[in-house]
Amino acid sequence: MQAHLVTLPGDGIGPEVTAAAVDVLKHVAAHHGHDFRFSEHAIGGAAIDATGEPLPDATREACLAADAVLLGAVGGPKWSDPNAKVRPEQGLLALRAALGVFANLRPLKVHPRLAERSPLKTERLKDVDFVVVRELTGGAYFGAKTRDKERATDECAYTVAEIERVLRRGFELASQRGRHLTSVDKANVLETSRLWRHTAEQVARDYPEVHLEHQLVDSMAMLMLTQPSRYDVIVTENLFGDILTDEAAALAGSLGLLPSASLGDHHGGLYEPIHGSAPDIAGQDAANPLGAIASAALLLRHALGLEAEAAVVEAAVEHVVEHGPWTRDLGGTATTSQVRDAVIAALD
Ligand code: NAI
Ligand code: MG
């Protein structure tokens, strides 16, 4: 298969972990007879320094034309003045909007070897394997905002079409996984949530093989900690998803392990580890590249339909999580390059 992949290394450890993920993809391509073409572009702080803009036109156009985009991370103290006109995160938000990626998938598995690093009891983390699907382009983050001295508002609005398309992603995923979908809302209080719940019931008719369950977001926040192994696919709106995905990340033991995929209807998607630019360890060859490499596996699966190759990369990542070498965040002493090399060795 031929594919054109754009890489956006970004800031801090972004370039280090992205380079490791690209090395893994190149190895997969060589091994499985694929022709992946890579081109690198600027985003975030690096792009502000080079062009004055967090998402230069050349980057946006290259991403739109690509089969998929692999991103490192953006941001850092150098660009963090809250009064600055341009900020690195604007580049990421603008890119998500340009690509029309409305569903953010965050798979979470807790490896038994790492369960002891989690704040939860080890036995509670047994068999945890779920995906949170967060709506990414609607709700309170994108609604009308007002502010005067005494009062501020953030409008939370959703259309049926916006709710339906993200739920369909969730149902499709659930029908390929454990056939269980938990739709999270606050339907006892919010009108948008009542529309969400009604829409979930409608969409569920097209997926009779999937069991639909509704959960209120406050009880979901608790259940994710008390019974995390009960869940398969969890679908929710933007604000609830932002909070629940950070809570889920805390279960895994390290931010450095977790991948994400942002998917739309008209583009192969945006793939990135969930961690930030980690300025405290940038430039030291100390970053854990496994989240970026696992994001590359999601790219193989969701953008290119290469399920077997995706599974091979995920198995190699699991092998390294189990047997090491580990970077400092997992209690080891290995470098980014050593972990990358171990993943590549485990591929064969
Ligand atoms: P962070 O995720 O960059 O770092 C939090 C802690 O986790 C740090 O101690 C860091 O060293 C560690 N860590 C993160 N990723 C790691 C990895 N792969 N290997 C080993 N250790 C790792 O979050 P923080 O410190 O809140 O933010 C730093 C900068 O990153 C900020 O400018 C923030 O805005 C930006 N950020 C960007 C994101 C993105 O590009 N999607 C997401 C989150 C934050
Ligand atoms: Mg967040």
Structure description:
With 348 residues, this protein is α/β, with parallel strands linked by helices. It folds into two domains: 1-102 and 260-348, Isopropylmalate Dehydrogenase (3-Layer(aba) Sandwich), CATH 3.40.718.10; 119-251, 3-Layer(aba) Sandwich (Isopropylmalate Dehydrogenase). It has helices spanning 14-32, 44-51, 57-65, 88-99, 160-176, 191-204, 217-226, 238-251, 290-302, 307-323, 336-347, and strands spanning 2-10, 35-40, 68-73, 103-109, 129-135, 145-147, 152-154, 180-185, 211-216, 233-236, 259-263, 270-273. The protein has a ten-stranded mixed sheet, with helices on both faces. The protein has a two-stranded antiparallel ribbon with strand order 6-7. β6 (145-147) and β7 (152-154) form a beta hairpin. The model has no long low-confidence stretch (mean pLDDT 96). The structure holds 1,4-dihydronicotinamide adenine dinucleotide and magnesium ion. The site of 1,4-dihydronicotinamide adenine dinucleotide has 23 residues, from loops.
Q: How many DSSP helices? A: 11
Percent range for helical residues? 40-55%
Estimated structural class = alpha/beta
- Named at the architecture level, the CATH assignment of the largest domain is 3-Layer(aba) Sandwich
Subcellular location: Cytoplasm
Cofactor: Mg(2+); Mn(2+)
Catalytic activity: (2R,3S)-3-isopropylmalate + NAD(+) = 4-methyl-2-oxopentanoate + CO2 + NADH
GO molecular function: 3-isopropylmalate dehydrogenase activity; magnesium ion binding; NAD binding
